[in-house]
Design goal:
Helices cover 30% and strands 40% of the residues. By secondary structure, it is α+β, with helices and mostly antiparallel strands. It folds into two domains: 122 residues, Impact, N-terminal domain (Ribosomal Protein S5, domain 2, 2-Layer Sandwich), CATH 3.30.230; 77 residues, Alpha-Beta Plaits (2-Layer Sandwich), CATH 3.30.70.240. The strands form two sheets. Strands 1, 7, 8, 9 and 10 form a five-stranded antiparallel sheet that branches. Strands 2-3-6-4-5 form a five-stranded antiparallel sheet, sandwiched between helices. The longest helix has 19 residues.
């Protein structure tokens, strides 16, 4: 069973910094398709209609197979491409970034523009929530009260998320299990409950697991 997953920014974030009086605003957003990316770019163009440039880059799909960038009037290769390269190096996909520039009257030169646009994206990535979208199996596991504490001890060791509990004459846990650990968990469940637990497969889904931020 595959254990591949997609890493993306989660939601939307905006950062800003100033270089030689030029104001750079980086907006990063999670997108699932080229149409969503285009809609996000157009919305920001309307929001920052008075800016000198709204440069963008995005990559979408597994391994960032779909990529596009634009210098939006900046000298060729000084904005969109460096922005895209910064995205690629970060490892995120399903992500669009728009860097809005308000010119401050001082020219930065080609190398200065490349550094400025790259750094704008880097700052945005540092501020953004980053999520790993991992495949999980969903299951209802029913045990007697005598095995509740046993199951509660097991779930963290298999990186299982407990979504719900239902109490009656037995206890039913709704679990979200990393797909690569499902079979091992089922075997351990049978062993530790002497075969009395009931495991009902409820399908699978992809769940975003937000990475903890590194302390600055």
């Amino acid at each position: 069973m595959t254990t591949s997953f997609i890493t993306s920014v989660y939601g939307r974030t905006e950062t800003e910094y100033i270089v030689k009086k030029s104001r750079f605003i980086a907006t990063l957003a999670e997108v699932r398709s080229e149409a969503e990316a285009a809609a996000c770019i157009e919305k920001l163009r309307k929001q920052y209609w008075d800016a000198n440039h709204n440069c963008y880059a995005y990559q979408i799909g597994v391994d960032g197979a779909l990529q596009k960038s634009s210098d939006d009037g900046e000298p060729s290769g000084t904005a969109g491409r460096p922005m895209l390269e910064t995205l690629k190096k970060s490892g995120v996909t399903n992500t669009v970034v728009v860097v809005t520039r308000y010119f401050g009257g001082v020219k930065l030169g080609a190398s200065g523009l490349i550094r400025a646009y790259s750094h704008a994206v880097t700052l945005g990535l540092q501020a953004a929530d980053i999520a790993d979208y991992k495949p999980y199996d969903i299951a209802d596991v029913t045990v007697s009260y005598s095995f509740v504490s046993t199951l509660e001890r097991m779930t963290p060791s298999f990186d299982i998320l407990v979504a719900d509990r239902a109490f009656s004459d037995t206890v039913t846990f709704t679990l979200q299990i990393p797909q690569e650990r499902t079979e091992a968990f089922k075997a351990a469940l049978i062993d530790t409950t002497n075969g009395t637990a009931h495991f009902i497969d409820k399908g699978s889904r992809t769940i975003p697991i937000i990475r903890p931020k590194n302390p600055q």
